[in-house]
Amino acid sequence: MARTPAALLDASAITLSTLCLLHCLALPLLAAALPLLGAWAEEEWVHVVFVIIAVPLSGHALWRAHRLRRLPRALLALATAGLACLVAGAVEMVPGAWETVVTVAGSLMLAGAHLWNWSRHHRH
Questions:
Q1: pLDDT score recorded for residue 71
Q2: DSSP label at 47?
Q3: What domain of life (predicted)?
Q4: How far out from the chain centre does Cα 27 lie?
Q5: Cα–Cα nearest to 66, from 51, 48, 79, 52
Q6: Which H or E element spans position 80?
Q7: CA distances for 71 relative to 16, 66, 120, angstroms
Q8: Is the pLDDT of residue 115 over 90?
């Protein structure tokens, strides 16, 4: 079903208005919470919690996608490497100086694998 230009403009306007509202409401709350968020960001348990959430969620999403339509091995390897880097960073398997680099690289690899999977899904 093709959308009309007017419908796209309406949807765009609604989306922008919603984003503006969220920005106006959330920014003061976020600014007030920054000291707490900054303290939490340094805590090791936060990284472990994120990995505990990311591994099963990403694993399930990619496993399900692989069962429905065979995913390229490169995509699976990228996702696996990303998850491995996240785990290595969260449980301090890498030296402290490399922890951030490995964690960010893992996040980017995992996000890239999910984007690749998403684009494959929406092309078909």
A1: 84
A2: H
A3: Bacteria
A4: 21
A5: 79
A6: helix 73-90
A7: 35, 5, 9
A8: no
